[in-house]
Every structure is written in C-alpha cells, then in structure tokens.
C-alpha cells in the first residue's frame, strides 16, 4: 500500500469523526432550541385562551348571567371566535370536547374519527398539561389541553406533527447536507495535501531506482543534508522519530486507560462480592429499609474444609493462598450459578443461603444441587492439586431449611446482609456432623420435606436419599432426622440404600432384630460402610438392652 493511501486512511477517519461530532452537537442544540420555542408558543397560546375563557365566565358571573343558557352560549361562541384569532397556521386547530367526548367547539371544520375518540379522551382525562401526541382527524398531531370547568370542556390546541417539527426537520436536512459537503471538501483537501507531502519522496525513490537500473556508481543523490531532498529526508526521519514517541505515549495513555477501566470494574466487582447485586437493586429505591430485617424461610448451607490446620501446616503461605483462591473460586461460582448468595467466609468455611432477597420456588432443590455440584468441582480441583503435588482438600457440607431473620444487620456505618436464627445454627452443626457420620453432604429433614413437595423435579435430577439418623445437636433436646444425598449411585449402593432405609423404619419401630438383619444386608453389599456398622451395633445392643419407654431414636450430640 502506498504511503499516500496510508495517510489518507489514517487522517480521513479523524477528520470525519471531528466534523461529525461538531455537526451533531450543533444539530441537537438547534433542534432542542427550536422545539422548545415551538412548545412554549403552543403553551402560551393555550394559556391565553384559558385566561380569555375565564374572563368570559367571570363577566357572566358578575352580571348574574351564569344561569342563562343563551348567555353561556354567547360566551362559548366568544371563546370559539377568540380561538380562531390566535391561530398562526392553516393546519393549527383548536377544539373542545364536552364531558361525554362530543365535539363542542372547533376553530375550523374538524372531525374526530370513532377509533381515535377513546384514546384522545383517555389522554384528556389524565389532566396532563404537557405536550402530547396522538392521531386526531386521521393525522398525527401534537397538542396541549386544559379542562375548563364552567363549560365542562376539554379545550385542546393542536398542530400537525410534521408542521410542528418542520423547522427541526429542516435543520436535520441542513445538517446532513453541511456534513456531506464538509466531508467531500475534507477528502479533496486531504488528497491534495497527501500528494504534496509524498511527491518529494516519490522523486527520491525514482532517482534511487535510476541509480540502481543504470548501475552508474558515479551518480550520487544527496538525500541527507545538502539539498531540499536531503532536508526532506531528514525532516521525514525526524517526524517518524517524533511520531514513534507520540505513538508510544498514546499506547501508554491507552494502557493506563485500560488499567483504569479494569480497576474500576474490579472495584465494582469487589463491592458486589460484599453486597449481593440483588440486595443493591432491592434496597436502592428504599434506603430506609437498609437496617430492617424480615423473617423468611431459607435454605442455609455451610461448607468447611476438613483438617485444614494440617493442610496449612504442610504448605507455604503463597501456595496455600493460591490453592484457597482456586478452591473458593470454583465453589462460589457453583453457588452463584445455582442462584445462591454467598453470605460470608468463616476462615476456610463458606456460608451461603437461598431464598433472599429474591425467593424462588426451587430454593431448597437448588441448594442441594449446589452441594452436589460443589463436590464435583472439588474433584476437578483435587485433580489439579495432585498434578501440582499439593495436598487434596476434603469438605463437608450441611444444609438446613427453616424460618430465619434476614436483612442488613448492623449500624449505619457498618452492616452485613446476613441471616440469623436457629436454622442457621443447625446447618452449621450438620456440617460438623459430616465428619461424625463419614458423609460428604448432610441435609436436615426440613430440606427433605421441601424436596418431597417437588417430587417431579427431584426425580428429574436423579437425586437419591439415605436416612442416616435422628440427632439432637449440642444444646438441643429435640431430634432432627438427617439424610445424605447423591446424584449417582454405584450398583452396590443401588441395592444397599433401600435395605438401609427399610432398616431405619424398623429401627424407629423398635424392631431391632429385624432392623439388624437389614443392616447386615447393607454391609454385605457395602463392606465397611460406616452408617451400616453404626446402626447394626446399636440394634444389636438395643436387642439385648432395649431403650426406655418414650425413646424416639434420638442421638444426643455432646460436641459441636
């Protein structure tokens, strides 16, 4: 590509953009001014007409003619005559509609079509005094109106839209023509300038080609310091050097701008991590709600890394932080993709909830699916840890469902959007019990009851449940059934889990020998299964020494 073309392609867009911005700014300024004046004129005439109508009515009242229909008619006729006197164009129409929407007065022959009638009357009944637009008499018109109570008239002053905006449209055409002419002139001037700039270089190139073709080694072309060509070459080289500096500066400015944009985006993103986006949107219009809470039924999830102290002791701080960041990134993405809110990080633990600030019908199901997805993501994370020769993470997840208090809790200077209540504590305890019951995920019966209400969705997700026990967490007397859940069972688990659940039914009915037989079936299919062995040992002990009357199968936890 020739240098002349390159100059043209670089400079022309800059000229066009500059001219376009200038013309557009002038266009909007002119159009806004013209339109504002037209609106003011229309409003002024409407105001004068309203004053005239009020004066006519005051004359009737002062002379005790307000009750005479003939005098009222005369006043109406006077208003109609005055409306004709203030018209400035043949297309301008002033008319009035009575309370039933019948045309009561018009400054010129005029007909409102039936299909336009209801829409126009709706506009007028709103009482809005600004500039409105509607189809009237088969034409697009702009209008302003007021309701004159003594006559029970909606008085309307209107103008055709194309006439009303005629000056603005002419400005548009003039702007386009001016811009086009300016661009054409700019192109011609640019072509001339580019030619003048590149001609000296063309002469130098031709002279050098002649030297090469003739192989006349005695010929010389002074191109650096002794003649115009040399000075042009020197100036060109200097210009290129300066352009290179300018280009480098532009790149630095652009890089700084990108960094600033990234920094702003990162800051916004960081604040959204502290305050969920839905919370910001919900309370933006009602700041007074920022310090109030509400009772809602939510799904609450706690997740914790097991033996994290041991893991942290075996890694240097940099590797530990890197691993934690990758772990949290995957886990949080899962929660947010399942419509959850990450409440906080508690050391290496994650607290999340579903159902606030926006409640969904499937919050309970989404919380369980999120837990299963978190386990899947953890498997991928551990694959990477093994490749990096780093310790693998093992986690436990507890989920509960119940009524809690949710909201922005704190003071005007520092607050957290969080949830508090007994169901939150139980979810935390369930996470701790995953170690006791050798289960990755534990859900309380509150979650299980909610899932039973949506059997079709649960079945579609392939969820399978196993009742593990009834426990009273530390500090509680009432027992809560706890379950583990999986999305995919092994062939042995497909056979063992039904035996286990049958055994639990017999266990709660105090049929301990029969329940023990079921748990032996479980252990035959799943050798070493912790829950099977635990319940078999209980059944064996209870068969010899039955529990007291009133026993409900509750295991009281002594520790958190």
How does this model look, in words?
By secondary structure, the chain is an alpha+beta fold. The chain has three domains: 3-167, Beta-Lactamase (2-Layer Sandwich), CATH 3.30.450.20; 291-488, Nucleotide cyclase, GGDEF domain (Alpha-Beta Plaits), CATH 3.30.70; 489-560, no CATH class. 58% of the residues lie in helices and 18% in strands. It is flat, with a radius of gyration of 42 Å. The two termini are 77 Å apart.
The CATH class of the largest domain: Alpha Beta
Helix content: 55-70%
List how many beta strands DSSP finds. 14
Radius of gyration: 42 Å
How many structural domains are formed by the residues? 3
Task: Describe the largest sheet.
Answer: 9 strands, mixed
Strand content: 15-25%
SSE layout and pairing:
Layout: H1 3-62, H2 69-85, E1 93-98, E2 103-106, H3 114-125, E3 132-136, E4 139-148, E5 153-160, H4 161-164, H5 166-214, H6 228-274, H7 277-284, E6 293-305, H8 308-313, H9 317-337, E7 341-346, E8 349-354, H10 363-387, E9 395-410, E10 415-420, H11 422-436, E11 441-444, H12 445-452, H13 455-461, E12 464-472, E13 480-486, H14 491-508, H15 512-525, H16 530-544, E14 554-556
Parallel strand pairs: 9-11, 12-14
Antiparallel strand pairs: 1-2, 1-5, 3-4, 4-5, 6-8, 6-9, 7-8, 9-10, 11-13, 12-13
Helix pairs in contact: 1-2, 1-5, 9-10, 14-15, 15-16
């Amino acid at each position: 590509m020739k240098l002349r073309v390159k100059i043209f392609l670089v400079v022309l867009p800059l000229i066009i953009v500059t001219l376009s911005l200038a013309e557009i700014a002038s266009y909007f300024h002119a159009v806004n001014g013209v339109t504002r004046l037209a609106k003011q004129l229309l409003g002024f005439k409407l105001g004068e007409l309203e004053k005239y109508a009020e004066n006519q009515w005051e004359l009737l009242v002062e002379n005790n003619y307000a009750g005479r229909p003939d005098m009222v008619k005369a006043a109406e006729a006077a208003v109609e005559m005055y409306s004709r006197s203030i018209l400035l164009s043949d297309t301008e129409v002033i008319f009035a509609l009575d309370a039933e929407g019948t045309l009561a007065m018009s400054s010129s022959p005029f007909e409102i079509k039936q299909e336009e009638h209801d829409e126009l009357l709706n506009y007028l009944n709103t009482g809005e005094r600004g500039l409105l637009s509607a189809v009237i008499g088969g034409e697009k018109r702009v209008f302003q109106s007021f309701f004159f109570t003594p006559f029970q008239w909606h008085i309307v002053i209107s103008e055709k839209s194309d006439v009303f905006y005629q000056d603005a449209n002419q400005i548009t055409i003039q702007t386009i023509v001016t811009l086009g002419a300016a661009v054409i002139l700019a192109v011609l001037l640019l072509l001339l300038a580019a030619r003048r700039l590149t001609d000296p270089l063309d002469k130098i190139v031709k002279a050098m080609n002649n030297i090469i073709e003739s192989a006349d080694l005695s010929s010389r072309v002074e191109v650096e310091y002794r003649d115009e060509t040399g000075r042009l070459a020197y100036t060109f080289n200097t210009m290129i050097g300066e352009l290179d500096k300018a280009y480098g500066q532009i790149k630095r400015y652009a890089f700084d701008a990108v960094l600033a944009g990234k920094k702003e985006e990162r800051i916004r993103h960081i604040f959204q991590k502290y305050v969920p986006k839905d919370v910001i949107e919900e309370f933006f219009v009602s700041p007074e709600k920022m310090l109030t809470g509400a009772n809602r039924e939510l799904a609450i999830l706690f997740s914790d890394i097991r033996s994290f102290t041991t893991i942290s002791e075996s890694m240097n701080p940099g590797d530990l932080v890197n691993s934690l960041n990758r772990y949290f990134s995957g886990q949080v993405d899962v929660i947010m993709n399942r419509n959850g809110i990450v409440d906080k990080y508690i050391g290496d633990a994650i607290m999340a909830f579903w159902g606030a600030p926006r409640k969904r019908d499937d919050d309970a199901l989404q919380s369980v699916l999120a837990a299963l997805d978190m386990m899947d993501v953890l498997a991928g994370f551990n694959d990477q840890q093994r490749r990096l020769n780093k310790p693998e993470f093992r986690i436990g997840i507890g989920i509960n469902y119940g009524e809690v208090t949710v909201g922005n809790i704190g003071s005007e200077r520092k607050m957290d959007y969080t949830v508090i209540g007994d169901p939150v504590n139980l979810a935390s305890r369930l996470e701790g019990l995953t170690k006791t019951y050798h289960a990755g995920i534990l859900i309380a019966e509150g979650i299980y009851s909610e899932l039973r209400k949506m059997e079709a969705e649960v079945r579609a997700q392939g969820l399978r449940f196993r009742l593990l026990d009834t426990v009273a967490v530390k500090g509680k007397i009432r027992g809560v059934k706890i379950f583990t859940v999986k999305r995919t069972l092994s062939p042995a688990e497909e056979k063992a889990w039904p035996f286990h659940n049958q055994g639990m039914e017999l266990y709660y009915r105090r049929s301990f020998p029969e329940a023990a037989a079921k748990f032996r079936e479980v252990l035959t299919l799943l050798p070493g299964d912790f829950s099977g062995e635990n319940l078999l040992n209980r059944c064996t002990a209870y068969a010899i020494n039955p529990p007291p009357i009133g026993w409900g199968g509750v295991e009281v936890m002594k520790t958190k």
